[in-house]
Amino acid sequence: MSLDPGALNLAWCQRLVAGFVAAGVGDAVISPGSRSTPLALALLRAPGLRVRVVVDERAAAFFALGLAKAGGRPVVVVATSGSAPANWFPAVVEASQGRVPLILIAADRPPELQACGANQTIDQTRLFGSHVRASHALGVPEAGFDPAWLHRLAAQVVEESGWPLAGPVFLNQPLREPLLPAIDPPAPAALPPVAIDHGTTLPSPSTVAALAATLSRRPGAIVCGEMPPTPEFAPALAALAERLDCPVLAEPLSGVRFGPHDRSRLLVRYEGWLHNSAFTGRHRPAWVLRFGAFPVTRTLQAFAGSGESCIAVDPAPGWRDPPHRVDRLLRADPAALCATLAAQPLVAAAPSWRQAFAAADEAAQALLPSPAAGEAALLPALLAALPAACPLFVGNSMLVRDLDAFGGSGPQTRHCFGNRGVSGIDGNLSTALGIAAAAGRVVALVGDLTCQHDLGGLAAARGLDAVIVVCNNGGGGIFEYLPQAGLAEFQRGWLTPQDIDFAAAAKTFGLGYGRPTTPAAVAAAVGAALAAGGPTLLEVPIDRQASVAQRQSWLAAIKAASIPAP
Fold this sequence. Notes:
Helices cover 39% and strands 14% of the residues. By secondary structure, the protein is α/β, with parallel strands linked by helices.
């Protein structure tokens, strides 16, 4: 018996969604709309799928980004036609550059309503251009369609979103009215998943042996940028660093700073001593072995490109080398490569090499102002207050740099997240809330402008255990460190202080609110909010000028310091 058009729409969408579930998708985010009704209904009725409704499409896409970051699997995002999917664009760009898997499905008008002035209709097929890994312009549901085709198309899309380079995939789905069936069709029978195995990527034995020869007996360093959290990498890296007896300069987003692995060769105050040109001039590495994304700060960026040989390890396509210094690129699984290298007959450099870097780290630590104020005091107190395995999302601009400089290290497993793909301040709250939905809770540390930029995202906080700590320093504090600070128009055009009532914003969206004014009070408030459960916004006033002066004083002292030989 043939299906009526509405039943055909639903049957088609149910088969597509069932294919995504069979391929391992566990989460979806919907923004309400009319044309997308068959897609939304199929998602809402799909067994084994967690579906969240976020009204604002921009916030929904960033929420899905957070889910995918924390969960490590692609998340389906659905919206109606017209300007709705255009609101995804900032999150699409972030997912593309940040290598986060998303599956974006936009409903559309059928061909007969295209290019004729129909309401809520634009050319959606080329909406995201080169920022998606693949784009599929589907046809309208057809009677007698082959369920096996949709099943395998879903598996293909999941594969495209995750390998070889994770990122967003776009599907444009035109649908004819009527959108709903007169009588619901039966739920589709389950089909078995399509098995896909990528294996572990490693270079050839001869390449590994050549790399071992390059590293052996020569002074070098390991640099780690942002990486997806995996339990295998940090201990494998620590074992390799022990064999080479080399310093490890690892950013907080690398997953190496925190955990029970050996951290004895880990340096955490490099943002200080890398400003000491006398030290860095005497200690140029023969090699730098880099894992993960290119570093955040300019000082570590410069160090990563300072080796006589600069080696990058990246399992996915893409060329991440802004200073154009890489002379060896290995497409390899980072943990597997570390383990394979550690099994080679490596010979460490002279012990004095690593000891000199350890002395530099100790000197930078000793020169930290005491008592510390501002972010230098807030970050350690906040990290100490977090329960084991509680994820921390850190906003862009200065706070991710403050976490790098002042966050230190520790034995508890700690997953630190950020949106460093294109480093925007848009969508940070929504991303953090997506992480809370995936991981069970989150603490987010963001600036006042970052919070203002995504206030609408707070609507998704209901029912989540999320503590949002807003450092209110009266505007764009990062510009205090840039040449724009010397302009007469600085405050109006760059600092842009706002007058935001964060207490009113928290009340509007049903969040608890507090205004702790000291690091100890912040730690206590975060602990209490996590224990109570639910969403809370904590506004922390920061004296921006005092914070800037303290940081500049620290760096000036390090620049002038004579770092003793070990």
